[in-house]
Amino acid sequence: MKTILYATDYSDNSIAALQLAHAFSKKLKSKLLVLHVFDLSVTIASTVSLSYARKKAKTIKEHKERLSSFCEGHLGVQTDNSNISLKVVEGAPAWESIIDSVNKFKVDLIVVGKKGESAIKEALLGSTTTALIEKADCPVLAVPESLSQKEINTMVYTTDLEEADLKAIENLVGIAKEFKASINVVHISTKNEYAGEEQMEWFKEMLHQKINFDKLQFNLLFSEDVFNALLEYIREVDPNMIVMLERQGHSLIKSIWHRDIVKRMLTESDFPLLTFHKKNLKLNKEHTVS
């Protein structure tokens, strides 16, 4: 992981995300790109005027200074003498500009806060985070304001026992090793699911074939209320991070259902949520569950 992008609106709700992004960059020896996106809310005709160009340049300069003060104030480091670089861009919607920067700078991880500083910004940030989870070509880490622990000791990965989960966990292990963290792999089985226990055994065997990592634990739970069973399990384990896979596959109903679970976890839990997207994982078809 070479580059981490942290996007902020300067709100207090994004401070914990900045601090966790910085902790990740130090632990993973990555560059940290701190980004702010602004919108001048101008007409198309005005974008060709000299006054617009001057206003844009002035606004970028002002945001660069504010961004520098924001980082130095909450990290206690000088941005000029660290692995942190600052970037200010104009654009709307914000998620499109963030993704443009992700592609331009070959970003490996996006870090954002879960909420904005007001009800309007909270709604905007929520929609921005959701759009990033669905559309970005790299994992997204959404961090709650209440987070105080910046170390990662325990992760919970929620699995559907699919081949894509194997690849996601393989990627996750690289992060876990750097933090010396354990990974609890959990699957919630319903009465309509075929052979949940056999699938879990298959999954464990395939994972051990692909990954040499001794800090994996597996849990198979049974419930008809998947989300609340998952939330209860997470609160019992009290991990430092939840990890989920955003799916966009052949089953439209299952894809929509799983996306709802991811969104609910984003809004209803107080844990950092790291999401991989299935479309970004290179899969081996021969490992697919039959």
List the helices and strands and how they pair.
Layout lengths: L2 E5 L7 H13 L3 E8 L11 H26 L8 E7 L3 H11 L4 E5 L5 H17 L4 E4 L10 E5 L4 H17 L2 E8 L6 H15 L5 E7 L3 H12 L3 E6 L5 H17 L4 E5 L13
Parallel strand pairs: 1-2, 1-4, 2-3, 4-5, 6-7, 6-9, 7-8, 9-10
Antiparallel strand pairs: 5-10
Helix pairs in contact: 3-4, 5-6
What would you note in describing this structure?
There is one protein chain. The chain is of the alpha/beta class and 290 residues long. The protein folds into two domains: 3-143, HUPs (Rossmann fold, 3-Layer(aba) Sandwich); 154-287, Rossmann fold (3-Layer(aba) Sandwich), CATH 3.40.50.620. Helix content is 44%, strand content 21%. The protein has eight helices and ten strands. It has helices at 15-27, 50-75, 94-104, 119-135, 163-179, 196-210, 226-237, 252-268, and strands at 3-7, 31-38, 84-90, 109-113, 140-143, 154-158, 182-189, 216-222, 241-246, 273-277. The protein has a ten-stranded mixed beta sheet with strand order 3-2-1-4-5-10-9-6-7-8, sandwiched between helices. Helix 3 (94-104) packs across helix 4 and helix 5 packs across helix 6. Mean pLDDT is 86; it is low at 116-124, 249-253 and 285-290.
Q: Key terms for this structure?
A:
290 residues, alpha/beta, Rossmann fold, 2 domains, ten-stranded mixed beta sheet, 8 helices, 10 strands, 44% helix, disordered C terminus
Short account of what is shown:
By secondary structure, the protein is an alpha/beta fold. 44% of the residues lie in helices and 21% in strands. A ten-stranded mixed sheet has the order 3-2-1-4-5-10-9-6-7-8, sandwiched between helices.
